[in-house]
Amino acid sequence: MKKMLIMCGAGHATSTVVRAKMEDWLKTQGLENQVTIKQSAVGDEIDNIENNRYDIVVSTTVVPNNIKPKVINGVALLTGIGADKVYNEVKKEIEE
User: What are the residue boundaries of the PTS EIIB type-2 domain, all occurrences included (predicted)?
Assistant: First the structure.
């Protein structure tokens, strides 16, 4: 089971929207039983991300440079433009 973190600035608004879209997408792909999702604020999770506590991290906000390589930019899930690219990155992480 993969552990996914979806985060935004405060852990409430945009991460809630992205979490709902991600859960729907996981169901359409038949992957809902392969991932557990946590939702939080970026400031609360930096240490956890640095220590690899999550397999997949999706953010709708700017993240510090030290964790950038471990984070998938999820803004496209809010706009709808480029969402397929985000889903493809997530799927790749799930399959690894």
Answer: 2-96
